[in-house]
């Protein structure tokens, strides 16, 4: 919402300086986003006269002009505008001038061999309108040499207010003035409108088919008008807030839209056939609207029609064919009320944003429908003459009687500040409320223009914003005797620990988009219709991610493309297996690319290697351990693996086949190819939600420590087994002999190659025995060893290496 | 000089000349071994008469002692020299560069760090952390929060929708974390003190907007909390979060459908070339919105607005992270550029705490 200072002063008697007014506006909820002082910004632009204009010797579309600037001899300027011609009075910028629209400072130019000492300007170049068809044309008597902005009345500073959607009443300058007056910044001038008596019946009848869509409609004819340019003061005001003056009748509607937040429409009565009907459009009906575009309508759109058909989109935009032009002699002025939701929906559907729509969809002052028409009529008669008809009014409920029982204690209860009834009454009265009573609970009548005020809390806001939120004292908010317990939920704690565990392994955390391209989602088990956005912002951000890996793979490739091929990235975040809350999980995932084994990124004298599936496994286990998973119970399964993994170099991490916590391994080359990523790449993904809950214990004490008095005994065994035998089976077989006595089984060597059959490998394990009640004899140790060998042989076919 | 004296000095000379332990051993064997020269002299004692034995024996034994002592001393010298030589041969290049410790090389995303910082501050003020799903219903994201159907305020949120279900309803990506407040009010009895951090979505993209971003909201519901408390909490938070002794804040009336009164909060700052300093300067920077929970919201969540009251606020985690740590372009937060992450990210042991400081 833009307005000028002088415009504001039409409605507010004030001596306050501009900055004080602006600061106050911001502090009462009408945030001033900018103050534009064109006179200051455009000071170097002066009025000048083109003396001669001749064709540029070397360019068809350029002219060489001699320009009288009022400062010494005429200067030579090269100009490309088609309307540059001898005798034209226009706007001149000398070298050294900053041109706002082009964001550069003018120098002395040489344009195709001809020197140019300055520039003749279009309105667009001065950022005073969008008009860039040619240079500005000023009246012949405009004073050459004077500052243009001051002469043009652009010296009136423009305030730009970031209006909140609830304050439709402040979409008019008078509403803003009322707020400022309530805040002590001046006196609000009486906004009332004297009715205009009609001199003959309105010849056009109005039928409203659906009062829900159109609660009120007022219409009158003014005949015998002479339309033409509106008065200069009005044109300047409209131009100052970025509107283009058109003709007096149209300018009046735009003026009242911004002056009183009362949008109006004017029809050229000669172009309207028969009576008007307010109705729903028929499907497929079309209208050529004032913006020059043809809209195809449906029955959700409310229109005003005559015997020709649709003439106007109700509350949004008028039709081109019935619009007012310089030839208009009889004008129909419409002032109506529209259903807010219908206007919003129609405007959105048709893609039309207008000043009228903005106001109607927020709910204009219903009580001002008829006065607004009277005010418009007065201006029409003032600017264009003519004789007004009587007013046709359809509908009868123009405003409700909202009366709120308001306990003054609400101010203290909600805002923590004491305000006296006198002060509250003063504020509310200034804002147009009526306050009755003087007890603990008063009755407050809400003005018709405040459609946003419904209850006690709204009244509190009115009082507090005018008193000033800065007056509300800060009050310590004690935490009381609430126990100091952890505030994170289990999954939050797991998330936090998972992130730091992975970073501590040298990985770098990425945050990638929650939505990914559909084929990528499908490659990782997603892409279901219920997880596809109806209105994605881009086709590659269309489906909720079923896994963090597509995003991480893309990120790894992007980094490789930037020249960083060795890297380890992780992410901990939400993934989506369905659209219900319980289908959203927290995954921790990572990828390693290039020379990025667990010991670190890049080649190093101390040893370095390409990341392998087992590095990804180590990452996964680090996350699970940090997140509190029961590590001793984890198993690796290689049977059923998702298609995005290399079938021979990957595994599932599970606690029994029913609870798969996640996967690790090398990514399948086919999937990498689909994602446009170069391999090999190793990855893991674990679902933190799937970790079983730890047992709750009543105290923090750790279980008692049992230390054996007897030394542990270690024995090594090397087995020759088939190449496909899994180490885990071998370890499990050894362990199973005596779970109490055997405290650990480690694999300390795996060998394939010379000396071993090509389809075999050697696996060496170290078994630690911990006697509890006596030292073991060699015989006893040997007996355990023999049982281990027998069991391993039975389970794996392995034989002790000779 | 007697023969014995000659022999002794010869042996001592040999000992001194022995260059390693093997040579020394040869000298020892030559002198004190079974067939050694001194052993041979000792063997002659048996054939002597007692008087001669007395004098000769003492002399030979003296010589033997001298030789033995010299051998021991020389052996120590040679052993030390041998060790020195061995160690000298073992020299390695200790100037070889190390790998960076993994815990120094890894990085947390700045959003994770700021999440932890914010949680730490509010936990100290007695706030619990609540979370909810990203995919929400229209009811929780809008209707219960007092956005009437078709209301223009809904348009302030460029909402991502899913396709309609058979019954006509359609889910959406939450446009703010406020539905978590709804879920909290529906599932917990007051008093309520929670913060709701989470990922949010709006269909918008430029230098200051990304279609995905993060918010942290706060909610207090009880029977007495008012705007004065809200101002205090936010002031305390800003001081703690930006790690300054004081910060000037400006609370301006504003509008949100779910709060009444509603406020926007600006923080005073000085804008430098590459940084923004808080607690000084003359510019105002908008950082959050807040207000008293709207009675319609309380009612929609099953609470009587004449009995219960409270306030809520919301701010962008991405935004406050950028302001605090001097990141200029929001989009870079989600580009996973390893260089950017190495620069703006945090080390895993940089754990925010009240005792040790948020950003140490």
TrEMBL record, chain A:
<dbReference type="GO" id="GO:0000049">
    <property type="term" value="F:tRNA binding"/>
</dbReference>
<keyword id="KW-0030">Aminoacyl-tRNA synthetase</keyword>
<feature type="binding site">
    <location>
        <position position="452"/>
    </location>
    <ligand>
        <name>Mg(2+)</name>
    </ligand>
</feature>
<dbReference type="InterPro" id="IPR009061">
    <property type="entry name" value="DNA-bd_dom_put_sf"/>
</dbReference>
<dbReference type="Pfam" id="PF17759">
    <property type="entry name" value="tRNA_synthFbeta"/>
</dbReference>
<dbReference type="InterPro" id="IPR045864">
    <property type="entry name" value="aa-tRNA-synth_II/BPL/LPL"/>
</dbReference>
<keyword id="KW-0963">Cytoplasm</keyword>
<dbReference type="GO" id="GO:0009328">
    <property type="term" value="C:phenylalanine-tRNA ligase complex"/>
</dbReference>
<feature type="binding site">
    <location>
        <position position="458"/>
    </location>
    <ligand>
        <name>Mg(2+)</name>
    </ligand>
</feature>
<dbReference type="InterPro" id="IPR005146">
    <property type="entry name" value="B3/B4_tRNA-bd"/>
</dbReference>
<feature type="binding site">
    <location>
        <position position="462"/>
    </location>
    <ligand>
        <name>Mg(2+)</name>
    </ligand>
</feature>
<dbReference type="GO" id="GO:0000287">
    <property type="term" value="F:magnesium ion binding"/>
</dbReference>
<comment type="similarity">
    <text>Belongs to the phenylalanyl-tRNA synthetase beta subunit family. Type 1 subfamily.</text>
</comment>
<dbReference type="GO" id="GO:0006432">
    <property type="term" value="P:phenylalanyl-tRNA aminoacylation"/>
</dbReference>
<feature type="domain" description="FDX-ACB">
    <location>
        <begin position="708"/>
        <end position="801"/>
    </location>
</feature>
<keyword id="KW-0479">Metal-binding</keyword>
<dbReference type="InterPro" id="IPR002547">
    <property type="entry name" value="tRNA-bd_dom"/>
</dbReference>
<dbReference type="Pfam" id="PF03147">
    <property type="entry name" value="FDX-ACB"/>
</dbReference>
<feature type="domain" description="B5">
    <location>
        <begin position="399"/>
        <end position="474"/>
    </location>
</feature>
<dbReference type="InterPro" id="IPR005147">
    <property type="entry name" value="tRNA_synthase_B5-dom"/>
</dbReference>
<keyword id="KW-0547">Nucleotide-binding</keyword>
<dbReference type="GO" id="GO:0004826">
    <property type="term" value="F:phenylalanine-tRNA ligase activity"/>
</dbReference>
From TrEMBL, chain B:
<comment type="similarity">
    <text>Belongs to the class-II aminoacyl-tRNA synthetase family. Phe-tRNA synthetase alpha subunit type 1 subfamily.</text>
</comment>
<keyword id="KW-0030">Aminoacyl-tRNA synthetase</keyword>
<dbReference type="Pfam" id="PF01409">
    <property type="entry name" value="tRNA-synt_2d"/>
</dbReference>
<dbReference type="Pfam" id="PF02912">
    <property type="entry name" value="Phe_tRNA-synt_N"/>
</dbReference>
<dbReference type="InterPro" id="IPR022911">
    <property type="entry name" value="Phe_tRNA_ligase_alpha1_bac"/>
</dbReference>
<keyword id="KW-0547">Nucleotide-binding</keyword>
<comment type="subunit">
    <text>Tetramer of two alpha and two beta subunits.</text>
</comment>
<dbReference type="GO" id="GO:0000049">
    <property type="term" value="F:tRNA binding"/>
</dbReference>
<keyword id="KW-0963">Cytoplasm</keyword>
<protein>
    <recommendedName>
        <fullName>Phenylalanine--tRNA ligase alpha subunit</fullName>
        <ecNumber>6.1.1.20</ecNumber>
    </recommendedName>
</protein>
<dbReference type="GO" id="GO:0005737">
    <property type="term" value="C:cytoplasm"/>
</dbReference>
<dbReference type="InterPro" id="IPR006195">
    <property type="entry name" value="aa-tRNA-synth_II"/>
</dbReference>
<dbReference type="GO" id="GO:0004826">
    <property type="term" value="F:phenylalanine-tRNA ligase activity"/>
</dbReference>
<keyword id="KW-0436">Ligase</keyword>
<keyword id="KW-0067">ATP-binding</keyword>
<dbReference type="InterPro" id="IPR004529">
    <property type="entry name" value="Phe-tRNA-synth_IIc_asu"/>
</dbReference>
<feature type="domain" description="Aminoacyl-transfer RNA synthetases class-II family profile">
    <location>
        <begin position="121"/>
        <end position="348"/>
    </location>
</feature>
<dbReference type="InterPro" id="IPR004188">
    <property type="entry name" value="Phe-tRNA_ligase_II_N"/>
</dbReference>
<dbReference type="GO" id="GO:0006432">
    <property type="term" value="P:phenylalanyl-tRNA aminoacylation"/>
</dbReference>
<dbReference type="InterPro" id="IPR002319">
    <property type="entry name" value="Phenylalanyl-tRNA_Synthase"/>
</dbReference>
<dbReference type="InterPro" id="IPR010978">
    <property type="entry name" value="tRNA-bd_arm"/>
</dbReference>
<dbReference type="GO" id="GO:0000287">
    <property type="term" value="F:magnesium ion binding"/>
</dbReference>
